[in-house]
C-alpha cells in the first residue's frame, strides 16, 4: 500500500515513540495564540501570548525587519496554594500601605503586579495548553514592510512554533485581552461564560481601520461606524489564517461569521466564508448614508482565548482573483485583476529571481497594499486556452510539454486540448486551481484516438500543501497505448464557471522530482558532544524513485550530521545532528537539503527542505504546516541561568515564631509536602511577587514542620 506523507507522519510518530531513549525530555515551548496578532506601522503596544513551557522566555524572533519586541513578564501555570500565598502577601502589603504615613511607589507597583497575577488565574482552564502566559512590549517601525510575518519565542530549552503576526497600515483598535477561559461543565456551561462589561459589547470605530479581538464562548463582538452612500466597503476577517489548526476543536479552526446591520438593526450583508476559505469577506456597496454595525462571532458559538481575529473595514484594495494564475520564471507578468477598489492599482509582482513554485502577487493603491494571492511560476512553455474548445471536434491543439492558462468561463463548460502522442510515452496531466485560490473544483479526463476514456481524476492529495483540507485539484498519469491524437478534457466538478474559474493545466512527460519537509520547525541541540534529531519527510512527484541523500547545508562550525539516504520506497527518515559547541548559544538557522545522483535518464536534483509543524486537526487528521525557517538553539544543561532572585533563608526568629504556632496542634506535613511548598514559594519569589520578609516567614513555617514539635 502506498504511504502518503500524512500517513507517514502518524506511522513514524508511533515508531519513534517506541524507540526513543528513556531520558528526561526538554519541554519545547509552544504558543497557542498571539493577541493581538499584529499592529500598525509606527505603533508601540502590548502583546499577550498563551501556551505551554513559556515560563522562562529569553527572546522574541519576528521574521522581516522593522519589528522589535521585549519580554515584560512570564506567568507559568500556578495552583490554588500559590494563589493563597499571593492573597496573603497582598493583604499584608495593603495593611502596611494603609498604616504608612506616605504611600510607597514600590509597594504600589508590587500590589498591582500581584493583583494582575491573581486576576489572570484560572483554576481549571478550558485548555491547559493555553494556560502559560507571556506578555511582550512590541514596537513596529514606521517604514516596516506591511504584511504577514512569523513570530516565535525563545527559551533556554528551545524555540517555539511560529504563529502569524501582521504589520498593518491602517489605524488599529484592540479590545482588552481575554482572561483564560474556564472549563465548561456539561449542563452548567453558563457558569463558564465570559462576563463582558456592557460598554465593551458595542464599540464605535472610524473606518478605515483594523480591529483586533477574541471571541469567547457564545459571544458576539460588534463595531458601529458611519458610512456614506456609494462607498465600496471591504470587511475582511483573518482568523484561520492566524492559527491554521486548533487540535481540540471541530472542524479544527475558528470559523468566524461576519454580519452587517443598518441603523434599524436590519441585516444587510452576511458571510461565513469567502468561496472555499473559512475566513469571510463582505463586499458591500453602501446604499445610503447612516450608521452601520459589523458583528463577528463563531459559526457554532464556540470560543476561548485562541479564537483570535483581525477585521479590516474600509475602502481598501482587495483582490478577488488574477488571470493568469501563473507564468514563466524570470519574466514580467501582465495580469488581469478582479476585485474591489482597484482603480489606479499597481501590481506587486514576484521578484525577478524568484524560482519555480508558488509565489504571490498583490496590488498597491495610493500606498496601501492589498491582500496577496498565490501565483505559480514554472519553467515549461506556456500558452492560453482559446475558445471555442469545448468539444473533441473543436479541441485546441497544443505541443508538449506545455502549461495551459485557462478559465472555465461559463457554467457547464469543458475545455479540450489535443496533442500528438507516441506509443509507450509517459504522460502526466496536472491541474493547479484550488491551490491557487481559484473557486474551481477541477475534474480531468484523457481520451485516446478512438475517443475512449483512458484516465480520469477528480481530487488528488497534495501533501505538501499543509493548510489544505480539501485537495480538489486533479492529477493523472498514463502510458500512451498507441500513436495518435489524444485529448485532455477539463471542467468544474459541479459544473460551475465564470471569469474567476481560472486554472493551470500541465501536460508533459513525467518530470520526476521530490520535496522535503522537516518536523518540527525548531530543534534544541545539547552542547558538548551532544546534539538532537529531526524528522524528514519526502514527497515524491511524477514517479520519482531515485535514492535521496539528506544532510545539512553549510552548517555553522561545531554543528554537523552524518548524511542519511532514503531509498525509492522510503518516505521518512530521522536526521541525527551532532553538536560540539561548548555552551548555550542564541538561536540560529539550519538548512536541511536533499539530493539525488544523476541516473541514465534523469538529471541530478537538489532541494532544500521546508520546515514544518506537525499539527492535528479536529482530534484526528494531521497536517504539515510550513514555517519560514528551521531554528536551532544550543542548550547546556550544566550551565543553567542564575535565578533572578535568590530566596532568602528563614531567620532564627521566624523559625521560633513558627514553632510556637505549631505547639498544641496536630498539623504535620510530610517531607514531600514541605519540598513542594518550598518550590511554590521560591517560584513566586523569583517571579518578584513576594517580599523578603514574607518569604522568610513562609520558609520558616516549612522548617518548623521538618522538626518535631513538643507540647510544653
Q: How many alpha or pi helices?
A: 6
Q: Please tell me the overall pLDDT.
A: 91
The SS-based structural class is mainly beta
Radius of gyration: 30 Å
Uncertain segments of ≥5 residues (pLDDT<50)? 1-25
Shape: globular
Write a structural description.
The protein contains six helices and 49 strands. Strands 41-43-39-37-47-48 form a six-stranded mixed beta sheet. Strands 2, 4, 7, 8 and 9 form a five-stranded mixed beta sheet that branches. The termini are far apart. With 712 residues, the chain is mainly beta.
SSE layout:
Layout: H1 5-19, E1 30-35, E2 38-40, E3 44-52, E4 57-62, E5 67-75, H2 80-99, H3 105-119, E6 132-140, E7 147-155, E8 158-159, E9 163-168, E10 172-174, E11 202-204, E12 209-214, E13 220-227, E14 232-238, E15 256-261, E16 267-271, E17 281-285, E18 290-298, E19 308-314, E20 318-323, E21 326-328, E22 336-340, E23 346-348, E24 357-365, E25 368-369, E26 373-378, E27 382-384, E28 396-397, E29 402-407, E30 414-421, E31 426-432, E32 442-447, E33 453-457, E34 475-479, E35 484-492, E36 502-508, E37 513-519, E38 522-526, E39 530-541, E40 548-552, E41 559-561, E42 564-566, E43 572-579, E44 588-590, E45 592-595, E46 606-608, E47 610-617, E48 621-626, E49 630-635, H4 652-662, H5 671-686, H6 692-706
Parallel strand pairs: 2-9, 10-12, 11-13, 21-26, 27-29, 28-30, 37-47, 38-49
Antiparallel strand pairs: 1-3, 3-6, 4-7, 5-6, 7-8, 7-9, 12-19, 13-18, 14-17, 14-19, 15-16, 15-18, 20-22, 23-24, 24-25, 24-26, 29-36, 30-35, 31-34, 31-36, 32-33, 32-35, 37-39, 39-43, 40-42, 40-45, 41-43, 44-49, 45-46, 47-48
Helix pairs in contact: 2-3, 2-5, 4-6, 5-6
Amino acid at each position: 500500500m502506498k504511504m502518503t506523507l500524512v500517513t507517514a507522519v502518524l506511522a513514524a510518530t508511533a515508531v519513534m515513540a517506541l524507540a526513543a531513549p528513556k531520558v528526561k525530555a526538554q519541554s519545547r515551548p509552544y504558543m497557542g495564540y498571539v493577541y493581538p496578532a499584529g499592529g500598525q506601522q509606527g505603533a508601540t503596544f502590548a502583546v499577550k501570548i498563551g501556551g505551554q513551557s513559556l515560563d522562562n522566555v529569553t527572546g522574541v524572533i519576528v521574521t522581516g525587519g522593522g519589528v522589535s519586541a521585549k519580554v515584560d513578564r512570564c506567568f507559568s501555570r500556578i495552583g490554588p496554594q500559590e494563589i493563597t500565598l499571593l492573597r496573603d502577601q497582598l493583604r499584608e502589603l495593603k495593611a502596611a500601605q494603609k498604616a504608612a504615613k506616605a504611600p510607597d511607589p514600590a509597594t504600589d507597583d508590587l500590589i498591582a503586579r500581584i493583583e494582575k497575577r491573581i486576576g489572570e488565574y484560572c483554576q481549571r482552564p478550558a485548555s491547559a495548553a493555553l494556560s502559560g502566559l507571556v506578555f511582550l512590549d512590541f514596537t513596529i517601525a514606521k517604514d516596516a514592510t506591511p504584511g504577514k510575518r512569523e513570530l516565535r519565542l525563545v527559551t533556554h530549552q528551545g524555540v517555539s512554533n511560529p504563529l502569524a503576526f501582521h504589520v498593518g497600515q491602517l489605524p488599529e483598535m484592540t479590545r482588552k485581552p481575554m482572561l483564560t477561559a474556564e472549563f465548561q461543565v456539561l449542563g452548567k456551561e453558563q457558569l463558564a461564560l465570559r462576563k463582558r462589561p456592557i460598554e465593551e459589547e458595542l464599540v464605535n470605530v472610524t473606518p478605515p481601520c483594523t480591529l483586533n479581538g477574541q471571541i469567547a464562548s457564545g459571544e458576539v463582538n460588534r463595531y458601529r461606524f458611519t458610512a456614506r452612500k456609494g462607498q465600496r466597503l471591504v470587511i475582511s476577517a483573518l482568523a484561520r489564517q492566524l492559527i491554521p489548526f486548533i487540535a481540540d476543536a471541530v472542524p479544527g479552526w475558528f470559523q468566524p461569521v461576519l454580519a452587517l446591520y443598518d441603523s434599524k438593526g436590519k441585516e444587510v450583508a452576511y458571510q461565513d466564508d469567502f468561496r472555499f476559505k473559512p475566513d469571510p469577506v463582505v463586499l458591500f456597496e453602501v446604499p445610503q448614508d447612516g450608521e452601520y454595525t459589523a458583528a463577528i462571532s463563531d459559526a457554532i458559538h464556540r470560543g476561548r482565548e485562541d479564537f483570535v481575529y483581525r477585521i479590516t473595514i474600509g475602502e481598501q484594495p482587495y483582490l478577488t482573483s488574477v488571470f493568469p494564475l501563473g507564468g514563466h520564471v524570470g519574466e514580467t507578468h501582465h495580469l488581469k485583476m478582479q476585485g474591489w477598489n482597484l482603480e489606479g492599482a499597481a501590481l506587486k509582482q514576484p521578484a525577478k529571481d524568484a524560482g519555480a513554485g508558488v509565489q504571490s502577487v498583490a496590488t498597491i493603491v495610493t500606498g496601501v497594499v492589498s491582500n496577496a494571492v498565490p501565483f505559480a511560476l514554472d519553467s515549461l512553455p506556456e500558452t492560453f486556452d482559446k475558445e471555442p474548445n469545448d468539444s473533441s471536434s473543436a479541441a485546441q491543439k497544443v505541443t508538449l510539454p506545455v502549461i495551459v492558462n485557462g478559465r472555465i468561463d461559463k457554467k457547464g463548460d469543458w475545455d479540450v486540448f489535443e496533442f500528438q502522442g507516441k506509443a509507450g510515452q509517459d504522460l502526466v496531466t496536472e491541474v493547479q486551481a484550488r491551490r491557487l485560490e481559484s473557486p474551481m473544483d477541477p475534474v480531468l479526463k484523457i481520451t485516446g484516438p478512438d475517443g475512449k476514456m483512458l484516465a480520469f481524476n477528480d481530487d488528488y492529495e497534495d501533501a505538501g500543501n499543509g493548510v489544505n483540507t480539501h485537495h480538489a485539484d486533479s492529477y493523472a498519469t498514463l502510458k500512451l497505448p498507441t500513436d495518435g491524437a489524444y485529448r485532455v478534457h477539463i471542467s468544474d466538478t459541479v459544473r460551475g464557471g465564470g471569469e474567476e474559474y481560472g486554472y493551470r493545466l500541465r501536460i508533459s512527460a513525467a518530470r520526476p522530482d521530490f520535496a522535503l519537509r522537516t518536523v518540527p520547525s525548531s530543534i534544541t541541540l545539547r552542547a558538548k558532544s551532544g546534539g538532537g534529531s529531526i524528522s524528514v519527510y519526502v514527497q515524491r512527484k511524477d514517479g520519482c524513485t531515485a535514492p535521496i541523500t539528506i544532510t545539512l547545508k553549510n552548517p555553522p562550525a561545531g554543528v554537523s550530521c552524518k548524511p542519511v539516504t532514503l531509498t525509492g520506497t522510503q518516505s521518512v527518515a530521522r536526521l541525527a545532528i551532532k553538536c560540539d559547541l561548548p555552551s548555550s548559544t542564541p538561536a540560529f538557522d539550519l538548512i536541511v537539503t536533499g539530493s539525488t545522483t544523476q541516473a541514465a535518464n534523469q538529471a541530478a536534483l537538489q532541494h532544500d527542505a521546508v520546515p514544518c509543524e506537525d499539527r492535528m486537526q479536529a482530534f484526528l487528521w494531521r497536517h504539515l504546516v510550513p514555517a519560514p525557517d528551521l531554528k536551532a538553539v544550543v542548550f547546556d544543561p550544566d550551565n543553567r541561568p542564575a535565578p533572578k532572585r535568590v530566596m532568602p533563608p528563614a531567620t532564627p526568629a521566624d523559625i521560633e515564631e513558627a514553632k510556637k504556632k505549631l505547639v498544641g496542634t496536630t498539623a504535620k506535613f510530610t517531607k514531600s509536602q514541605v519540598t513542594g511548598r518550598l518550590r511554590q514559594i521560591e517560584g513566586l519569589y523569583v517571579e518578584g511577587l513576594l517580599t523578603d520578609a514574607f518569604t522568610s516567614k513562609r520558609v520558616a513555617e516549612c522548617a518548623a514542620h521538618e522538626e518535631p514539635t513538643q507540647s510544653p
